[in-house]
Amino acid sequence: MAKYDLKALPIGYEVHGINLKNELPADIVDQIRKDTIKHKILVFKNQGVILPQRQLQITRWFGDIEELGIEEHARVKGCTGVLRVSNDELEGLRGFGTSGFHIDGGFLHNPCANSIYHIVSCPKAGKTVFIDLAKIIENLAQEMLLRWERLWPVWTYKQILGSCNSGPTVVAHPLIYPHPLTSQPTLAIAMGKIKRFIWDMGTATERKATREESTSILKEIQNELDKNVQYAHAWESGDFIITDNLAVGHYADADTQMTKEEVGLRVMHRTCVRGKFVPFKNDCIPIEPSITAPNSEELPSLTDLELNLPDDVVKDIENRIEEIKKEELPIKD
Ligand SMILES: [Fe+2]
Known about the structure:
CATH superfamily of the largest domain: Clavaminate synthase-like
Largest sheet: 7 strands, mixed
Low-confidence stretches: 162-168, 288-308, 328-333
Strand order of the largest sheet: 1-2-3-14-5-16-4
Organism: Dimorphilus gyrociliatus
Family: Belongs to the TfdA dioxygenase family.
Keywords: Dioxygenase, Iron, Metal-binding, Oxidoreductase
Helix content: 10-25%
GO molecular function, one term: metal ion binding
Bound molecules: fe (ii) ion
CATH architecture of the largest domain: 4-Layer Sandwich
Protein name: DgyrCDS3748
C-alpha cells in the first residue's frame, strides 16, 4: 500500500498525505530515503512551520549534519547546521545561493549528500530553481561529452567563504562522475564559483586550462544548462523540500533577493547531510563515517579524511593540489 501520495513535477515529485512534524514509522522514513534517491527532489506540501530542531532530526535520517562552516544566525542559535537565509538581515543571512546552478558543499572533498529546505516565512515571490544533472549529460552531443569527460573544475575554499582567514584550500572534482548510489553520470558544478579547470587530471596529458579557456568552458556549460528542463519552484507556505544534492543542481533566483517591503518576509532554513563519498572518475571513494566536519578555519587534507586510497595515489593528488595552490587563483566571487 502506498505510504503517501506522489504528484509529478517537471523534476521530482510533490508529496501529500504525510506530516513531518510527527514521528514517522521506520518503514515510511525508509521509503522517503529511497524516493529521494529515485526521484531526486521531494516537495512535502502543507507542513506548516517545522522547527529547526525537527529539521535537524529529519536531516539525520540521511546521515550526519554537514555544518559547512557557515555563520550561525542569532535566530537559530544552538541549532548548528541550520543555515537561515532571509531578505531581511535581522532575520537571516542574505545573498546565499544566487550565483548560479551549483551543488552544496562542492568545495569539500566529499560534497553534501542531501540538501533540505524549509520555507519558514513565505514571500509573494522568490523561487529556487532546480535542474537534473544526469539529463544534461544525457543530452550532450558526443563530441562535447568527450571533452567534458576530461574536465576537472577547481574550487577554492577561501573563494566560497570569503570570511575564512586561512589560505585557499583547493579541491578539484571530475566534472562528470558516477553518482555514488545510482552510478548515473552526474556533474560537479558551481556556476559563478568555479573559475578554473584542469584537463585530464591524473593522466600524462594533464594541464591547467588558461583563464580564457576556462571562461569559454563555463559559457559552454551555461549554454547546455540553459537548453535543459529547469524546475523553478515557486514556494508556498509549508513547503519542505528534500533533494539528492549530487543529482540536482540548484540556485536561488534573483527574485529571492527582493525586499521585505516588496514581497513580504522571506525566511528559509537549509540543512545539509555530510557526503560519504569523494567524486572520482571511475568510482566514488567512500570515506570513513567518523571524519570530523571541516570548520571555518580549514578543510581537512586528503589524509585527514582517511580515504581508503593507496599511499601513492594520495601523494599524487596532494602534489597536484599543491601545484594549483602555487598558482594565483581568483579568490573573490
Ligand atoms: Fe545551495
